Amino acid sequence: MNRTTLSLIAAAAALAAVTGFAAATAPGDDGDSAKAAARLPVERSSLLCPAPSTSDLAETAYTSYTPVSKESGSSGKAALSSATRELTDGTGSGKGKGKADKPVLSPLKPGKPVAGESSGAESPALVGSADGNLAPGWTVQQTTEVAAGTGRGLLGVNCSAPDTDFWFPGASTAKERSDYIHLTNPDDSAAVVDVQLYGANGAIKSDVGEGIQVQPHSSVPVLLSTLTDKPQTNVTLHVTARSGRVAAAVLAADDKLGGDWLPASADPAGTVVLPGIPKDATSVRLVAFTPGDNDADLKVQLASPTGRITPAGHESLHVKSGMTAAVDLGDVTRGEAGSLVLTPTGDSAPVVAALRVVRGKGDDQESAFIPATRPVGARATVADNRAKGSTLSLTAPGAAGTVKVTASAGTEGGTPVTKTYTVKGGTTMSVRPPVPAGLKGSYALTVEQVSGGQVYGSRMLDVSDADVPGVPMFTVQTLPDDRGTVSVPHADQDLSVLQK
After folding, report:
1. Nearest in space to 168 (alpha carbons), one of 264, 90, 93
2. pLDDT < 70 stretches in the chain
3. 361 vs 257: CA distance, rounded Å
């Protein structure tokens, strides 16, 4: 092997370890490449948390957790600190900056969750990084309670890694909604971002959403209704970074249905899974979009506790290219928790999708969102679970799958507990997750695939708040693979192809 090839091997290994880049074995490979590569823990992770609320009544909890990973070393460090918050006129044009403060959270070791809190409307976005043994699978949950006003309810979001491309089906510019896209830049140079809306009739023209500048280590909220003069109930939002990278999440607030965070959908795919519709959901709305040049024709099914069923009157969904499609499924679960599975019929284009789920009736309604997500894969993690109020939903849309669920120690004490679940093919299992022995504070859950077919998951957190009697305050977070490991070639693997 020549010196150039050795250099390329070292460069590829370093890139994978630092950035989290993963090389996967393609379908149809003979397995030789998989044997010649080792999966190693990532050495650095970045997470960004959006500014939690504009309400003076907001109370926000942050919970950080890193699972214990083999071969990740014996030391590391992590911190979440305030971003400089830009003052804007709603269009994303910065008018000034705040000042970064000391870390809000400083995790110390894997396997031990750490919690922090903030209150009021001035709580900033957070920018964080972790390295060493605190990097693989690093997860931060942001949970906000808002007792009154537009968007009141429980607002939960997993702080996310920066990227350059995001899809948000399920956003809205309707008069009763106040939806903001929060853009947070972790880097030392400015990012330039384009925001494009797609309605029922296609792209919504707007010059305001082009070239939004997000200054270094800062966050910009953009009110979606300022991007168009024609309100639409259901829109799909596409966020792309021309330069730099950002984290993006939509804060959706409804005058009557409360509010929650709408995370980005998984990448466009032919089959999509939206796991964890609560058994007492009173209204479920499906929003889908296909970004390609071809239409999508989808079979709509609910993975119930006993198997897949087709909702009466909603057997299929046609999604025209470049146009947002929405359908109200009503109380589709009929008292049993379930997950929605969309599968292509014929030559169907890939789609992105999300659900808006409503619980309660009349004036006592609250809403949350479930985007299409990736399977739990090797390991998925969700933080800020409580002794009461956490529900874990697991679905195996194809073959049966077995997962191991571990409840970590608590933020203030407790002993980890592990339990194994087997999910029958085509079904959804909704359970109260294991709780650490002697729990004090909140805790994290990790879900690891053990065997069988792919499993998808989500966690619902609901709380009882004396300030909002009768309102079922809840939020749902999906459980995609945490991508805490990367595939790194062995030294004897020939990478001469990289020279071409």
Report:
1. 264
2. 1-37, 85-101, 465-467, 490-500
3. 10
Question: What pLDDT score does 39 carry?
Answer: 81
Q: What is the pLDDT of residues 99-152, one digit of tens each?
A: 446 889 999 999 999 999 999 888 899 999 999 999 999 999 999 999 888 788
Supply φ then ψ for residue 38, to 5 degrees: -110, 145
Predicted TM-score (pTM) of this structure: 0.88
Kindly report, residue by residue over 12-30, the tens digit of the pLDDT: 444 344 444 333 333 334 4
